[in-house]
Amino acid sequence: MVFAVVRAGGRQEKVEVGSVVTMNRVVADDKGNVNLPAVLLVDGDKITSDADKLAKVTVTAEVVEDLRGPKIRIQKYKNKTGYKKRQGHRQELTTVKITDIK
Predict the structure, then answer these.
(1) Cα dihedral sign for 46, 37, 58, 20?
(2) What average pLDDT does range 54-83 have in this prediction?
(3) Which residues of 67-78 are buried (b: 16+ CB within 10 A; e: fewer)?
(4) Keyword RNA-binding, does the record have it (predicted)?
């Protein structure tokens, strides 16, 4: 069983071939593929964490869809001063499917 831990949109995700991951928005190339940098590679009993060897490892993913996350409402309030502030945010997300780990 081969899996890798990749850096994906500010976080680290454990992925294997065929897994689907939702991460912060990434820009794909003209074919719709994204290369993700590996942080750790596990190939059976062999574990690779050396940066020089991991530079040669490529994790390729195919973009499934671009979407937006749920609406987050931020509210601030200070008592007795009349200060109220309401703000909203929706994170830009991308869903990718891992196609290859070499």
Answers:
(1) positive
(2) 97
(3) eeeeeeeeeeee
(4) yes
| Count of structural domains within the chain | 1
- List the domain range (segments joined by +) for residue 15: 1-99
CA-to-CA distance for 18 and 63, rounded, in angstroms?
12
Which sign, positive or negative, has the C-alpha torsion 22, 23, 24, 26? negative
Q: pLDDT tens digit string along 5-61? A: 999 878 999 999 999 999 999 999 999 999 999 999 999 999 999 999 999 999 999
Record the pTM: 0.85
